[in-house]
Amino acid sequence: MVLSGRTKTFLGESRRNFYTTGAVLPSGMALAREVTKHLITPHREPLRILEAGPGTGPVTRMIAKRMIPGDTLDAVEINSAFAQAMRDLVARDPGFDSTRDRIRVIEADLLTLAPSGDYDAIICGLPFNNFDPELVRKLFDAMEGLLKSGGRLSYFEYWAIRTLKSPFVGSQMRQRLKGIGNLTGEIRKRMGASTRLILANFPPALIHHMIKD
Ligand SMILES: C[S@@+](CC[C@H](N)C(=O)[O-])C[C@H]1O[C@@H](n2cnc3c(N)ncnc32)[C@H](O)[C@@H]1O
Hints:
Blueprint: H1 5-16, H2 18-21, H3 29-35, E1 48-52, H4 58-66, E2 72-77, H5 80-92, E3 103-107, E4 119-124, H6 133-146, E5 147-158, H7 161-165, H8 171-190, E6 194-198, E7 205-211
Parallel strand pairs: 1-2, 1-4, 2-3, 4-5
Antiparallel strand pairs: 5-7, 6-7
Helix pairs in contact: 3-4, 6-8
């Protein structure tokens, strides 16, 4: 099998930084289509879009494809190898010809962004299941602080991963996974999430779409 440079970067970073990467492969097209589906609303106004954790850019490509004139995209990435891969992708790939001057790659931890409240949409690929519930809460608070009222948050998580892992891990990890499940469940309920299962991804993923009050 011939792997692209970006897939090799992803595999390498997955090995070196699994805690922040949280996946062994970049997301597939079906997931990218679903997590960006609100961008194809007909006759919509231009949006300020934030992508959290673009990695090597499979979701970013789909965002760029679905951007309309006037849309802008900020892609915030904590890992410098991924941020560099993203800068190269946006600068060179013809898929970004009509959008690159409206896309910024920001090499930073999402938590360091000021809670500007001026994004219309956040599309998030952060690996919440690797983090402590307290950090997960901070990340969701940060995203809510960045969103406008009425703005949309779409994120994905791997299907049933907490349930599948739980019998094989120690009690501390089981408690951590349970805490994440409870917390994200409460947030989805409060924000009226709608959820879709995408089986055509490795691993299969749940995509959640929700709106800030
Ligand atoms: C599961 S990967 C998703 C990558 C890509 N969106 C995809 O779907 O293939 C998680 C990404 O989130 C990034 N990340 C993790 N924590 C972050 C943080 N606090 N701020 C910004 N990016 C972060 C990782 O470096 C990685 O690129």
